[in-house]
Amino acid sequence: ESTRLYHVLDALGVERGALHNRITFLDPLCGIQLDSGPSLKALRAYIEGEGFDFVSFDPLFNLHRQKENDATAIGIVLQALRSLTDLATVVVVHHETKPSEATQGRTDSQHARGSGAIIGFTEANARMRVLRPNRFKLSFDPKYGPKPEDLELLWDGKEFHAVALTLFEESVLGCLKDHPGASGKELVGIMDKRRGDVYSALHKLAAVGLARNAGGWILTLSPSGPQNTPLRGQGKSVPEPLGTPGTPSDENEDNF
């Protein structure tokens, strides 16, 4: 969770140090259970006491013991989440159902795993899909207002880059990874492609900040920046376990 959050801060240009004492991570040992009255009460008091204005639950499965396919059962969890929205913006990370013939033609929201009550609860949904090993598509499905355009993201092993590359441009990018410092002429020979096509792709990669010509073409996929080290709010005490005392059920035992 911390790695994802700090990637978001980096992408937004937010200095991590500025939020050093304003971000708190609660690990599974806190025992949060959204379908437990005492646990929810303690969690609400903690959010209110600390003044948090943004709360993320990741993943939802680890935070309750209800059957996700049962609308009535999962409704208990959804109502618990709803009760927190008067204190902070609530974001929930959830898994999607496995693809099959039955999932064809569904909206992005309808790919969420479990009961339809889950997507009925949310105000907006975002879905991340894997297109290829290093390429992803981020889709948005708001309940109100126009649907934003999808974002295609390129993963360089450390960061996401929001760029739309053609298959050929991606192949040139891959060639640059394998042959750093090669000249444009050398890349044309290595790829055995038309000179104009290769140079056009190189100029596109340079325009979006993924490569540059420095006496030879090199990648600029991993700009220097802060290390992905979680910041855990110095001086803050971690609360006592927020869950109901007792042993987790066998169903969720491995998730805590």
Structure report:
About 30% of the residues lie in helices and about 15% in strands. The strands form three sheets. The chain has a four-stranded antiparallel beta sheet with strand order 3-4-5-6, with no helix packed on it. Strands 1-2 form a two-stranded parallel ribbon. It is built from seven helices and eight strands. The protein has helices at about 1-10, 35-50, 70-80, 115-120, 165-180, 185-190, 195-205, and strands at about 55, 90, 125-130, 135-140, 150-155, 160, 210-215, 215-220. It is elongated. Mean pLDDT is about 80; it is low at about 220-240 and about 245-255. The two termini are about 15 Å apart. Helix 5 packs across helix 7 (about 195-205) and helix 6 crosses helix 7. With about 260 residues, it is of the alpha+beta class.
Please give a handful of descriptors for the protein shown.
elongated; 256 residues; alpha+beta; four-stranded antiparallel sheet; 29% helix
Unreliable segments of 5+ consecutive residues: 222-241, 243-256
Number of helical segments with 4 or more residues: 7
What is the spatial order of strands in the main beta sheet? 3-4-5-6
The whole-number mean of residue pLDDT values reads 80
Q: Could you give a short account of the major beta sheet?
A: 4 strands, antiparallel
Query: How far apart are the termini?
Result: 15 Å
- Rg calc: 23 Å
Helix content: 25-40%
Order of helices and strands: HHEHEHEEEEHHHEE
What does this entry show, briefly?
With 256 residues, the protein is of the alpha+beta class.
